Amino acid sequence: MSDNTIRINLDREKMLYLLDLFEKRQDFDAQKAMELKPLLEEEYNRVLQKGAVDLAEKIASVLIVLNSIITGEINLRYYDGINIA
């Protein structure tokens, strides 16, 4: 019997979905920031191990903003200090 299923990394899909909300500033709150943070930390470590320093710096910037959202220091809806493109 052959395996015809497509393997999907659900954590990565969730991370991409949350990053899209983050980038569009749509319905992104502290709860979503707490969900995204560990996923993005894992991605940061993976990217850094591959030597992609520029991408790692962008991810680190997002992680800093996520920490600020979680602690209530900033509201993403009114924050223009980051561009992850």
Explain the layout of strands and helices.
Elements: H1 10-24, H2 30-49, H3 53-70
Give a description of the structure:
It is built from three helices and no strands. It is mostly helical and 85 residues long. The termini are far apart. The relative contact order is 0.14. The mean pLDDT is 86.
What is shown here, in short?
The chain is an all-alpha fold. The chain is built from 3 helices and no strands.
Q: What portion of residues is helical?
A: 55-70%
Write the element-wise H/E pattern from the N-terminal end onward: HHH
Count every beta strand, where a strand is a DSSP E run of 2 or more residues.
Answer: 0
Low-confidence spans: pLDDT under 50, at least 5 residues?
Answer: none
Percentage of residues in strands: under 5%
**Shape field:** globular
Q: Please tell me the overall pLDDT.
A: 86
Structural class: mainly alpha
Number of helices: 3
Largest sheet, if any?
none
CA(first)-CA(last) distance: 43 Å
Name the quaternary structure.
Answer: single chain
| Estimated radius of gyration | 15 Å
